[in-house]
Amino acid sequence: MSSSSSRNAFEDGKYKTDLLTLDSSSRCCKTKPSSRAPPSPPKQLLVATPVEEGEYPVVMLLHGYLLYNSFYSQLMLHVSSHGFILIAPQLYSIAGPDTMDEIKSTAEIINWLSVGLNHFLPSQVTPNLSKFALSGHSRGGKTAFAVALKKFGYSSDLKISTLIGIDPVDGTGKGKQTPPPVLTYEPNSFDLDKTPVLVIGSGLGETARNPLFPPCAPPGVNHREFFRECQGPAWHFVAKDYGHLDMLDDDTKGIRGKSSYCLCKNGEERRPMRRFVGGMVVSFLLAYLEGDDCELVQIKDGCHEGVPVEIQEFEVIM
């Protein structure tokens, strides 16, 4: 891999970006009036894209339990500013413990990308689906792993180039996984066909905010177990003193947005954790999609001066 990058992944990149909402009423940007209209996305999508002419890798981000995709706008724009198209579907508004519908919907949306996405992007922007990353936060992280593992009869036609779990969670505790369970409790049991994996954890995720609420990322079903079951190459970073929802936007509106400040043990502010998650995602994507591992190696070696949080733990399987 190359080691020539001069950017700082934890700060905004060089690309100007825009935030789009795509749904069944969205108009195509690249279809001629006489042409047959491409299919609309299966779910409403929030898209962060560079606006400069070019071809860009595509990253899908799956939201956490009962959260809105709009709560990740700042994180998405951060990653997109480094030359990536970010897509966040709204998988549901209300859901119970079973994640099968989310797994099915995610596979359907991924399969739609190759026939629909390009038509809805700005005319000067082209998605490079040969470089496709699947990521998810919390329950969305579990869903991302389930789709990548092709475990439950739903898989994507598109090859997943990298897989990212942002504080992934599979239930409320060991023995209390949400159906269908993804974790097997067997080390290195995830057969992902050598797909590179990044797992990011929150240091406060295992801590309950108060006696009334359980931890948001309980031991036995959180990032540690997801990483333990990965095969190489896999990277695991844990941010000290930040919580399970600290990568969300600074201002998350509505009842669900306000509750995101109350349910989990949080850090003092969200920006450092959001910048950390964004920078880790960017450095990982640059390494494994673009062949530039400079920043990822610097972070691993503890010599990257721009890391905005204290890294509590680090592990790698090669």
From TrEMBL:
Its EC number is 3.1.1.14. Signal peptide: none annotated. Belongs to the AB hydrolase superfamily. Lipase family. GO terms for molecular function: chlorophyllase activity. Pathway: Porphyrin-containing compound metabolism; chlorophyll degradation. It comes from the Eukaryota. GO terms for cellular component: cytosol. Pfam families: Chlorophyllase. It catalyses: a chlorophyll + H2O = a chlorophyllide + phytol + H(+). PANTHER family: CHLOROPHYLLASE-2, CHLOROPHYLLASE-2, CHLOROPLASTIC. It is found in: Cytoplasm, Cytosol. It comes from Cardamine amara subsp. amara. This is chlorophyllase. Its main location: cytoplasm. The active site is at residues 138, 167, 244. Keywords: Chlorophyll catabolism, Cytoplasm, Hydrolase.
